[in-house]
Amino acid sequence: MRCKVCRTPFTKLSISHKTCSPECALEFVAREKAKKARAEGRKRLTELKTRSQWMKEAQAAFNRYIRFRDAGKPCICCGMPLEGGAVGGSFDCGHYRSVGSAPHLRFDDRNAHGQRKQCNRWGSGRAVDYRLGLIARIGIEQVESLEADNEVRKYTIQELKEIKQKYNSLAKELSGAKHEQSTLAS
């Protein structure tokens, strides 16, 4: 058995024996107290988060999922390939009905697709081209359903936590699958 502090080998005398000396035991206790204090601090900060902060985190998780889901597909607007590129990548999670004009659709998978930054940010979303690409991907019935959906939704903090958790786990699954595919291709 190795000491939890200095990593030197020692003979364990009981189940609770974790260190090789009293000095290491004091250091171990101090580290454990600091770890517990950090965990309590994180818990308190989480409890103090506002609905707005949860909304931003849920949106970031959703956008990340959409970018993983659509990686390797063409841009919904112009049909050019979506490439990862440098930090932040070269494509966004573009919304057909913008988050500003239709906030109730911000977490609707049908409303969000991989879109080159040139199209999304500098091309003002290219709504007409987006609609044509969207019809090709999900069909006219779904597009018309999105366009007709004007039901106001106000997300609770609990719903936002669940949305964040759902899309983080979906993104993690996709990133693992994409990593697996790239490893097999190599």
What report would you give on this structure?
- The protein contains six helices and two strands.
- The chain is mostly helical and 186 residues long.
- The protein has a domain at 58-155.
- The longest helix is centred in the last third of the chain and has 29 residues, at 157-185.
- 23% of the residues are buried.
Task: For the structure shown, list the relevant keywords.
6 helices; two-stranded antiparallel ribbon; 5% strand; mainly alpha; elongated; single chain; 186 residues
Sum this structure up briefly.
This protein is mainly α and 186 residues long. It is 55% helix and 5% strand.
**What ranges have pLDDT less than 50 throughout 5 or more consecutive residues?**
none
Distance between the termini: 40 Å
The neighbouring-strand order within the major sheet is 1-2
Would you tell me the structural class of the helices and strands?
mainly alpha
Biggest β-sheet: count, sense, barrel?
2 strands, antiparallel
Radius of gyration: 24 Å
Oligomer: single chain
> How do the SSEs run, as a string of H and E?
HHEEHHHH
Overall pLDDT score: 88
Approximate strand percentage = 5-15%
Number of strands: 2
Number of helices: 6
Write the layout of secondary structure elements.
Layout: H1 22-48, H2 51-70, E1 91-95, E2 112-116, H3 117-122, H4 127-138, H5 140-148, H6 157-185
Antiparallel strand pairs: 1-2
Helix pairs in contact: 2-6, 4-5
